[in-house]
Request: fold
Amino acid sequence: GNSVTQMEGPVTLSEEAFLTINCTYTATGYPSLFWYVQYPGEGLQLLLKATKADDKGSNKGFEATYRKETTSFHLEKGSVQVSDSAVYFCALPLFSGGYNKLIFGAGTRLAVHP
Amino acid sequence: DTGVSQNPRHKITKRGQNVTFRCDPISEHNRLYWYRQTLGQGPEFLTYFQNEAQLEKSRLLSDRFSAERPKGSFSTLEIQRTEQGDSAMYLCASSSIQGRTEAFFGQGTRLTVV
Reply:
């Protein structure tokens, strides 16, 4: 079945450092892929998505490329800020009876210090 | 429309009590989902509504859990005879039936059973 594996956290970086959070997936076919972000005490916000192979999703300086060869969707940002401190979830849909429910990774906590 | 709204944001209850949470989805969305997130984990699917019909219930949803969406708009999730293991963040999400797969999440209800 569909599944997602994320690198374990926490990831601790200094401001302006380069960020990579790894995500690999197992899926039937080529589903859309998502990154969600959860700030402390909040629900999940969609950060970016890619709907087909080789697509690059981007938002707020974050990018992720859908790579079917390596079944990966790694999240990157060139220069992180303190305000990026949050938990990041990679997710993909599991198609079931005409709708999609999301399968999430365990999340990767990012802490950025000044 | 400001997005998916959940109430209350926090709930502390004694073991054995019943609790009810409410979710108001984005108004034009006819798909509604409940997820549960325990500490340090990604959200896990609980149940799905299309309009007023509950089309899937996860095995995570024991007999003490019941969800409704009586008029295809807001939804409630009730937990009877709460247990300490029910302590978690309960997240509601909604999406459109127009074939797009991204779901929009509320801020969640954090339940603490003491």
